[in-house]
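Human: You know discrete backbone vocabularies at least as well as I do. Show me how you would write down a chain together with its backbone fold. No explanation is needed for now; the record alone will do.

Assistant:
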Amino acid sequence: MTVHEKFLALGTHYGKVYLLDVQGNITQKVDISPVKINQISLDESGEHMGICSEDGKVQVFGLYSGEEFHETFDCPIKIVAVHPQFVRSHCKQFVTGGKKLLLYEKTWMNRWKPSVLHEGEGNIRNVKWRGHLIAWANNMGVKILDMISKQRITNVPRDDISLRPDMYPCSLCWKDNLTLIIGWGTSVKICSVKERHASEMRDLPSRYVEIIFQFDTEFYISGLAPLCDQLVVLSYVKEVSEKTEMEYCARPRLDIIQPLPESCEEISSDALTVRGFQENECRDYHLEHSEGESLFYIISPRDIVVAKERDQDDHIDWLLEKKKYEEALMAAEISQKTIKKHRILDIGLAYINHLVEKGEYDLAARKCQKILGKNTELWEFEVYKFKEIGQLKAISRYLPRRDPILKPLIYEMVLHEFLESDYEGFAMLIKEWPGDLYNNAIIVQVVVDHLKKDPQNRTLLRTLAELYTYDQRYGKALEIYLTLRHKDVFQLIHKHNLFSSIRDKIVLLMDFDSEKAVDMLLDNEDKISIDRVVEELENRPELQHVYLHKLFKRDHHKGQRYHEKQISLYAEYDRPNLLPFLRDSTHCPLEKALEICQQRNFVEETVYLLSRMGNSRSALKMIMEELYDVDKAIEFAKEQDDGELWEDLILYSIDKPPFITGLLNNIGTHVDPILLIHRIKEGMEIPNLRDSLVKILQDYNLQILLREGCKKILVADSLSLLKKMHRTQMKGVRVDEENICESCLSPILPSDASKSFSVTVFHCRHMFHKECLPVPSTMSPLQFCNICSAKHRGPGSAILEMKK
């Protein structure tokens, strides 16, 4: 059998030749001989065919022309090969092989001239013609002939001479015009024809052959063909039976091998099932290939198997057959530009169905996002399919929410499913899904119906509030949030400006979160007035106090009309802040405050109010009698800085040794300690008296040191300033025509510069004509500035006299 890219030519054991199309349909039948057809050869154009048979017949003829050659030899002809360019007039050549290799050439007289190319080494077993090179195999090895020089350029000997060449024939195949692949027995050699350098020519052929790859296989080679940089090898396999330990013929194998310099790597291997393989020998299998379409034909006595290079569609088919849908989908996405048979969407849908059948509903739903994309019809179909199997919940999380948007009925169907069985899931979907995906009014009504059965269900109430918010019914949403004490109530009020709706709900807001409520109310005084808030909180004084206290902290004057009320509120609910309030408030009625503090016996607050109202002696008396706290009494006396208070404090403390100790320790810087010491009765035992006296002396010494230090600093500063003033006054003073006499108010300098004049300038920078100044007395010869003396700014003595 031989292969052309347009058709196949098949010879039989009964001497017939069939022409078949690439699908295997018979298109033509030719009777050649009554015996076996040994070989068929075609030129590259597919217009001429050469045939040889076991009875010695050779025919070369045109399939579409009347050109024909017939010859019968006296021995079987095993091979025939026509020139690849036989269609051309100058290439009318072909070779035949039996016991010798003959070349037939057409002469100018249209006669065929034979010539012997080789003989004497047994039968010619195989021949392949490519370009200007002919390769053939006989019992001794493989030869290559250069048709240009008509010289044999190489001889590649057979490796294993123990194998019968008729049982294990040689396989030849040209990869290109210069590369020959040889397979014989278990050996593979790849030979490259190269040009010889001119300096090496001498009597040698212009070309030579180099074996670039050589390796052995595990099985016998029945045929081979190139596949890019790899080899397709048809192998004849013999195996040993485990039971009988005898060899038997196994199925032939088609292997893809990657040649390496001294070995090979098996890429893939497939065992072929052909009829009668148990009786076949190595010579019964042949491998032919079509270069144009990468098709490979395995010929056995009873079958022809067509193999082609597996493409991505084949790979996807295999993955789908093995139910490896995810890998098939990935392969289709990677090769989406080259696959022809499959669609990514179809594979994806099959994957989803497979996952559903396995019960992996969540994974199937998740894959819908990627596979269905923006196809709304497929989305809706899948949702209904999930509904039929009761798995709407699984797909709910992955439904599209934007681009595309499905029909509202789809989302409502999912929500209804959750509402019937999972309130929390329903609430989560309402929170996550935009409100425009479904008919809000329908969902609201369904939720209301469920609340009739379970009116206290917080999840449903919270969800209903969110639905009301989507529907812009903020008042109803606010009521629910306040009932639930939901944290989003303040955000809802701010976001939608619901202050008009909360005027009568202030108590509820304060009960929920007084801090946030007060901050919100104070931040929006223009929308809810202070008076309105105080009025609403009238029956809840503790909340009223929280609001007014925060208001007072922000601004001491805004709530001044409520300061009197706040006195009672502080006294009742927040005494620690009462005294700071009394100190900071300028609008608080002191009499009312004093009355309340006295009623409640608030000593510190009463002391402060008495002192603020000018009754310091009563305040001091209360400190000493009620609090019995000498330190606080001393501190109070220091604050007031009143001698009478110190006198009262001494009189009260004179018979109380602890008080005397406290006074001795603190009185030294405000009152002369001698006044206290003289009044101490003799024989009175005073705790820590010695330490107190030592402290008084130390304080006195410290005061002396401070005074002396201050005096030194004052003298040094005075001297420094005096020197500075002296330097300043000793500087020259500019006198020009713009200056005037401070007495006569005329220009200080005469208009006629030639006239004589006399001017006096004082340190105060006032200027006078000499004659305008009074004559100094004999008692005080110094002159003084009349202006400065009159203003009591200190006399200025003359510093400069100018005469001319």
About this structure: The two ends are 148 Å apart (CA to CA). Residues 2-223 form a domain with the Methylamine Dehydrogenase; Chain H fold (CATH 2.130.10.10).
